[in-house]
Amino acid sequence: TGFTGGKVDDAVIYNRMLEPLEMAILAGKDSWKSHWPTTGSPLTTAAPSELSAYYAHHIDTAAIRQQTALKQTREAYYATVKDMRQVMVMEEMPKPKATHLLLRGQYNLKGDRVSPGTPASIMPFSQQFPNNRLGLAQWLTHPDHPLTARVAVNRLWQQFFGTGLVKTSEDFGNQGEMPSHPALLDWLAVHFKESGWDVKQLIRLIVTSSTYKQDSRTTAALRESDPENRWLVRGPGKRLTAEMLRDQALAASGLLNRKIGGESVKPYQPAGLWEINSMQYRADSTDAMYRRSVYVVVKRSVPFPTLGAFDASERSSCLSRRQQTNTPLQALVTLNDPAYVEAARALGSSVISLQDTTTMIREMYRKLTAQYPGERELAILQNLHRNEIRKFIAQPEKMQGWQQTGIFKAPQQQATLQAANAVVASTIMNSDALITKR
């Protein structure tokens, strides 16, 4: 806890590095006379090596020049690397630690010793593979390995269709579900490997397929006979993920910060959540908070609520697929979360120059949903816009929430029109047209 209760007698400051012998003498643990008793007498056995260090550092001009050059080289090297971001990497130990089975899972009850290995029933581990993580990678990506490509393809399929060809994407074993289209899964896996594991090409293949481009609307009879669309008779219809919803709102509003890489960011969140860990959460005050959701700071004990409400994982364990719920809390997030309210205000402000109400509404709808509204949707939104204009003229104080939420500063002109536009934008954000991809 510091120098509590101590006292200082003498404080001595030097403008150079002291040698070990000098420090020992200064502390009273040694003396010059013990090494050099009298003038002209020979040095003691220990003195030459100790005095030679002093001579090299403070007397010998050639040695001093070399030390100065070395210092300058080190300073130049440090200036080069000090701003580089560093990451931890693992390295194999020369002698691996012994690993044991833990009886009943207790760390102090060790059972039989075990060594690294792979299931021979999947594919034997070749003697040509090194017995380390590099060998494991070679085993996983070997052309004869039956699972790696299938698992990867299945998870990409799941991202676009909501459900993988193998529904239990976390379990390809006996306890998992059999593939709905085994021949298709095999063909995609072989194509993926033969393309050089080209993920971009595989994604292009999926989204340009006739299966993906089908209309997601269907008949009541088909919905009843195949509610999960396991037979792929219609196009996919699934809710956007938590990250996609937030990023879509930011992108449509023009607020999205497209910077790539860098530190985590802290968007808006309710006060006091981090106090459970005796910590304070201070939201960013710059446009850094508008970066994509992949950069949102992760705290496993206190998940980010804006994303957590839409089933974002808590990061306490690895998940190959997320659950999808439909709760009232999700509607409260998209209606009241500062990120969405601010995005609605920014979008409403961005279309002010169009002047015509119908044009403004159509443009906001297009930016948010990538399509124009139908006649019925347009009429509903026009009526809402007129009602909000009348309400804000009669009760200007009701505009405060739309004008003051967040750090985005909208122009002061036409405040009533901006607030009405923000209400319409928020309504579109909370509609099925934005939340669900069809």
What does this protein structure show overall?
The model has no long low-confidence stretch (mean pLDDT 90). The chain is extended. By secondary structure, the chain is an all-alpha fold. A two-stranded antiparallel sheet has the order 1-2. Strands 3-4 form a two-stranded antiparallel ribbon. The chain contains 17 helices and four strands. It has helices spanning 20-26, 47-58, 61-81, 133-140, 148-161, 182-194, 199-207, 220-225, 242-253, 305-308, 328-336, 338-350, 357-369, 375-394, 400-404, 415-429, 432-435; strands spanning 99-102, 110-114, 238-239, 436-437. The protein is 42% helix and 3% strand.
Helix/strand-derived category reads mainly alpha
Main pleated sheet: 2 strands, antiparallel
Radius of gyration: 34 Å
Biggest sheet: strands side by side, in what order? 1-2
> In total, how many beta strands?
4
Shape: extended
Order of helices and strands: HHHEEHHHHHEHHHHHHHHHE
Quaternary structure state of the chains depicted: single chain
Summarize the amount of helix as a percent range. Answer: 40-55%
The low-confidence runs, each spanning 5 or more residues with pLDDT under 50, are: none
Give the distance, in angstroms, between the N- and C-terminal Cα atoms: 62 Å
Number of helices: 17
Strand content: under 5%
In round numbers, the mean pLDDT is 90
List the helices and strands and how they pair.
Blueprint: H1 20-26, H2 47-58, H3 61-81, E1 99-102, E2 110-114, H4 133-140, H5 148-161, H6 182-194, H7 199-207, H8 220-225, E3 238-239, H9 242-253, H10 305-308, H11 328-336, H12 338-350, H13 357-369, H14 375-394, H15 400-404, H16 415-429, H17 432-435, E4 436-437
Antiparallel strand pairs: 1-2, 3-4
Helix pairs in contact: 5-6, 5-7, 9-12, 11-12, 12-16, 13-14, 13-16, 14-16
